[in-house]
Amino acid sequence: MVENFSTVYIAPCFSENPAGFMENPFSIRVVGVAKRFGDVAAVDHVSLDIRRGEFFSLLGPSGCGKTTLLRMIAGLEEGDAGNIIIDGSDVTRVPAHRRPVNLVFQQFALFPHLNVEKNVAFGLRYKSGGKRDSHKKVSAALDLVRLSGLQHRYPDELSGGQKQRVALARALVLEPRVLLLDEPLGALDQKLRKEMQVELKHLQRRLGITFVFVTHDQEEALTMSDRIAVMNAGKVEQMDSAAEVFEHPSTPFVAEFMGAGNFFTAKVREVDGAIVTVISKAGFETALLAPNAPNYRPGEKVRFVVRPEKLEMSLTEPPPADARARMEVTVEERVYQGVATVWTVRNRAGERIHVYQQNVIHGAGEQFVDMGKAWLCWDPRNAILMREQKA
Amino acid sequence: MKNGALRTWLQLLPTWLVLGIFFLAPMAIMLGISFREKGPAGTIKPIDDMKQYITKGTFLNNYRESLDPSYAGVYWRSLWLAVATTALCLLIGYPVAYYIAIVANPMRKNLLLAMVAIPFWTSFLIRMGAWKLILETQGVLNTMLGAVGIAPLDMLYTPGAVLTGLVYGELPFMILPLYASLEKMDRTLLEAAADLGAGATSRFFRVTVPQTMSGIIAGIVLVLIPAAGQFVVSDILGGAKGALVGNIIQEGFQRNKPLKSAIAFELTAVVGLMLAVYGLYLHRRRRKEAAL
Q1: CATH of domain A2-247
Q2: Which of A109, A127, A157 has its CB closest to that of B191?
Q3: In Å, how far from its chain's centre is CA A164?
Q4: Is there a contact between B196 and A74 if contact means CB atoms under 8 Å apart?
Q5: Residue A225 scores a pLDDT above 60
Q6: Which of A140-154, B8-22, B271-285 has the lowest mean pLDDT?
Q7: CATH 1.10.3300.10 for domain B70-252
Q8: Domain ranges of chain A
Q9: What confidence score (pLDDT) does residue A24 get?
Q10: A90-148 pLDDT, tens digit each
Q11: What value does the mean pLDDT take over residues A353-366?
């Protein structure tokens, strides 16, 4: 029954479309879009391309403009500048009810005066041919989100997770080319959230439609997304695959937001091809691999970042034969988390560093004493070079 | 437990006293009078033989008389005027309430609401007098029409004049509950409807109207009940042939208390029926809200 939905109701949507539809690799193109609220630039000339069939996340702290951008794609917010192109046609001036996208609202926005079935069927009458077999379409959509049998319940008789599923079904029944999701898991508790993350990802893979997902939770974005755009103060800081954003943050903001808060101040000593050799403030020298190495000048002040889980801590200095970079630190604090222990240490330059150590064996890390000396070492390839200021 | 029940009763006592003295007792007295016969000069005739009075059906004489065909015209006029008043108030009041609650600049909401309420600062009689000045043959409106070459119209003492007065008087009672329900409506629902493909008209009828149904019903009740019992408006703007059921009850009440009481009770019964429907609706609604 579940499979029926995608084969019977979703598939025709793709086959019936004109040839140009499949040739265009982009589902959504946002071109120089801007929106001000009073003095605040909520979205500051953002451009991004969302590929067909990908799970794309807009990630950032609250107030970064991610929700405003999503609402502009949905047509619920009018921009001050720029264009929004969906499936190759410019919809900048098209009102929300004529756009081929559907939004799942953060607080679900189910109609309280309609039962589940009527909520899901709400949009069908506006779609050509939508009223035909509407009963079957509604139950197929409810099957798809695993919510059969609750057709006659009212929204206030549903749990948060069930409301979420109704909201999803209500959008999916319309077979949108793009599904927009505005922090749809924000109102759910932790356990349900994790389940829904996996379920949403599966759903997206099965239906093959483009998902644009707004969240402030980096872990959620990493779990679900093919690509992520990290936003800050109305601008896109970095747009890349999930792994790339995580492993190679391109700005200090992205690094910090992705949980890589270990910044080391340094000065460039020499640039040789793709290799930049720097002298850290803590006194040691290290060579870093940087794709944009030629941009750096000797003497320039820079920073590099090493993720907490990429650092290894030992009591003694590794032998010189070990090619890894190293620095001496003082242990300040230990936070035991069960799976891992998070250490706070400080180097000679006074820079605070977090070290994440898996508790592989019982009693791991017992050799370290508070305020005692230790050595950190890391593979130089895991250190990411960036400018002091955002380029 | 028993103590708790007693305390609850004691706490309710003041409410019951007020309701009893000012509402239930007068109603009971009026109901009693409606089953009696009128005596000379506004008195009430004593009952000689209670058994006969009841078995012969004498106690229903007033109700029988009140349903005399000669009253039919007045009842009919009262009914359609009350219904028309309610419908017009809804048609005029909804856009006004919608404008104040949703369209208008939030800074000006209070000013606009005050403008709705300001007429209450003047006596209703004076305001009706003003309408008379506007509508009469040599009145304000006809003078203005004359200035553009239109012959004076007979507007005063017509059902139209009464309807105008009723709508004017009851309109605020429609606007205020509508405003309250529009104000608290969740606007995200409108966005959701738009996102699902509903245009402006569709959004209005499928989301806004159902979401403000409690305000619509409150407004209908608040307008229909007073409009059904009005006698001041019809007295001033309706003339001799414009009497409503309210006028029948009020005129000569002193001379024939039993008959007028019976008519008053019939009106109350009709109004009560409408309230019962309203109560049923609210009950169902509240039960749904309680499940939240």
Answers
A1: 3.40.50.300
A2: A109
A3: 20
A4: no
A5: yes
A6: B271-285
A7: no
A8: 2-247, 260-387
A9: 75
A10: 999 999 999 999 999 999 999 999 999 999 999 999 988 878 888 999 999 999 998 98
A11: 87
Question: Is the model's pLDDT at B29 over the cut of 80?
Answer: yes
- The residue type of A323 is A
ipTM of the shown complex: 0.82
pLDDT band of B43, cuts 50, 70, 90: confident
For chain B, what's the residue count? 292
Ordered by start, the domain boundaries in chain B are 70-252
| Ordered DSSP codes for chain B | -HHHHHHHHHHHHHHHHHHIIIIIHHHHHHHHHHTSEE-GGG-EEPPS-HHHHHHTTGGGHHHHHHT-GGGHHHHHHHHHHHHHHHHHHHHHHHHHHHIIIIIS-GGGHHHHHHHHHGGGGS-HHHHHHHHHHHHSTTSHHHHHHHHTTPPP---TTSHHHHHHHHHHHHHHHHHHHHHHHHHTS-THHHHHHHHTT--HHHHIIIIIHHHTHHHHHHHHHHHHHHHHH--HHIIIII-GGG--HHHHHHTTTTT-HHHHHHHHHHHHHHHHHHHHHHHHHHHHHHHHHHT-
Q: Which residues of A touch B195 (CB under 8 A)?
A: 74-76, 96-97, 102-103, 171
Q: Does B288 touch chain A (CB under 8 A)?
A: yes
Place domain A260-387 in its CATH homologous superfamily: Nucleic acid-binding proteins (2.40.50.140)
**Within an 8 Å CB–CB cutoff, is residue B189 touching chain A?**
yes
